[in-house]
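Form 7-S
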Amino acid sequence: MKKYLITSFAILLVAFVFVRCNKFPIDEDGLLITDRAQCYVSNFELLGSDFQTVRTQAPVIDTTALTINTTVFYGTDLKNLYPQFSLVTDAKLDPKIVGKVDFSDLTNPKKYTVISGNRQVKKTYTVYITVQPKP
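Output:
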């Protein structure tokens, strides 16, 4: 039993030293930098102040034109929306979304840049919002 404990302790110590000495590359946000070069948005959600969707249908995401088109319900408060992006594995978004976003200026659509896991590829998506016509 004592030999088992000593062996287990030695294995754990070696593993700890290996992990501590191995410097994984991280970016300025503390995120792991990988070798993935993929860079795209796979889904987009737009939530209102009650955290319920305000979209009338699925968004149209064009990964070639780098656009996201979505229609929101008539009467949606465009000044208090919470966008949510689903990105390819290891990618990140700039600017970061830290709360509600004002989308009320429909003539100046918001732009978000997706940055690949290796931090070498950057693609800027433009989010176009259309308000559903008055019923």
